[in-house]
Structure formats: C-alpha cells, structure tokens
C-alpha cells in the first residue's frame, strides 16, 4: 500500500466547479474525499471524520482558510495542510506556511495537486510502522526517528512535518551544502523543481525556532543552497 492509499482528504473550496474537479481527480487516485464550501462545514466534517489531509482555499465566504487551517491543526496535530491561493497573492500564504505543509497557486494543474498532496502524506503518514531507530544527532541537535520529535540542547523544538523533513535531510547531509533543487526533490518530492520560494520560507521558519535555543545552526551559500554549521 502507498502512503496515501485510503487516505481521506478534506477539500474546502467554495467554487463548486473547482471542488468537483478536485474531488473527481482525488477519488480517481484512490483518496477518500470530503468536501465543504465554508469554514463552518469544514469544522463539522473534520470533527465527525478525522481527515488525513486538508486542501484549503485561502478565501472562503465565511472566514479565512489560514485561520481554519490553524484551528484544524490545533485539534489534529498530525493533519497535513495544503493551501490553495491566487497566483497574484503569494503573500497570503506566507503566514500560513509557519504551520502548514505546502501551497498551490491558482490556476493549478490537477496532476500537481495530486503530487503535492501525495508528497505531504509521505511525510506525515508513513505507509508502514517504523521500527525503533537510533536518533540522528548533529551538534546539540537530536532528531528521534521513531517519534519524529526534535530537541536542541535537551529542549523540545516544535516542528511541523515539513520542517522536520527539511531538518532531517540537512542533518543527514552533515556539514555539506545541499543545493536548493535537491531539497525540492527530496523534501517536497518535486520531480521537476521550478522557481519556488518554499525552501527559503521553511529555512526561515527553522532558523527562527532553532536559533531561539542556541547559536545559528543553518548556513546559506548564496545561489547554491543550505547546510548546517
């Protein structure tokens, strides 16, 4: 079984034609799908049937999709969150990425939507139960590969699944500089990396959380990529 087979996706989109296209495509790829057109409907559905992932339009008739995503994540910390936003309004999503996992701009390619959700679920919903494994360590960082928890200097660092996946890849590469394109392929599962600010955005979130507990640990090689000091 793949990481996503049988997974339930909550689609929150108030435009019926878009919701229909997403629903048909997701079901074709063996997802279970629930749809909602408002914040109120989405909260009711999520309470009744805990989804594995939520695909949220940022602009909803009775509220903000970002606020909805934050509320859903509080109630279900392991929920994968992917946001839909207008192409001309990327700033809408910056705050949401501090707790969400990915975003897709409209108009979108349906194959990209399926690929993004599948990639997020690989990070948040492993296909098999993993055996206990020794923690990954780098300096004063410790990543527990069984519980997916992170500590720095013995103190817990609260990370989203995508932040954890990014930090784990950097730790596994030790002090080497990892090119941005490689991060997009291995962390976000982008088969054909294009221009995207998602890496820079998540690096900034990691820095903010890790630097609060010690000296700066993530280094930047401008025009190349990122590594650990």
UniProtKB/TrEMBL annotation:
InterPro entries: CheY-like_superfamily, OmpR/PhoB-type_DNA-bd, Sig_transdc_resp-reg_receiver, WalR-like, WH-like_DNA-bd_sf. Pfam families: Response_reg (PF00072), Trans_reg_C (PF00486). Residues 133-229 form the OmpR/PhoB-type domain. GO terms for cellular component: cytosol; protein-DNA complex. This is DNA-binding response regulator. The modification 4-aspartylphosphate is found at residue 57. It comes from Streptomyces dioscori. Residues 133-229 bind DNA. Keywords: DNA-binding, Phosphoprotein, Transcription, Transcription regulation, Two-component regulatory system.
């Amino acid at each position: 079984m793949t990481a996503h087979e049988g997974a339930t996706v909550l689609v929150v989109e108030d435009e019926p034609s878009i919701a229909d296209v997403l629903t048909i495509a997701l079901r074709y790829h063996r997802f279970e799908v629930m749809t909602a057109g408002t914040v109120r409907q989405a909260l009711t559905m999520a309470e009744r049937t805990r989804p594995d992932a939520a695909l949220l339009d940022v602009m909803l008739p009775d509220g903000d999709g970002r606020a909805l995503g934050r509320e859903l994540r509080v109630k279900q910390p392991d929920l994968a969150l992917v946001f839909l936003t207008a192409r001309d309004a990327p700033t809408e999503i910056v705050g949401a990425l501090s707790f969400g996992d990915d975003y897709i701009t409209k108009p979108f390619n349906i194959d990209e939507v399926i690929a993004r959700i599948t990639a997020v679920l690989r990070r948040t919903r492993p296909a098999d139960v993993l055996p206990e494994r020794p923690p990954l360590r780098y300096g004063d960082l410790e990543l527990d590969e069984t519980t997916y928890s992170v500590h720095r200097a013995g103190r817990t660092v609260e990370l989203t699944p995508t932040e954890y996946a990014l930090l784990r890849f950097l730790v596994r590469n030790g002090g080497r500089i990892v090119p941005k394109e490689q991060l997009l392929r291995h962390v976000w599962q982008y088969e054909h990396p294009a221009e995207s600010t998602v890496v820079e955005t998540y690096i900034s979130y990691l820095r903010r959380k890790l630097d609060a507990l010690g000296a700066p640990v993530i280094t930047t090689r401008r025009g190349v990529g990122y590594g650990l000091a």
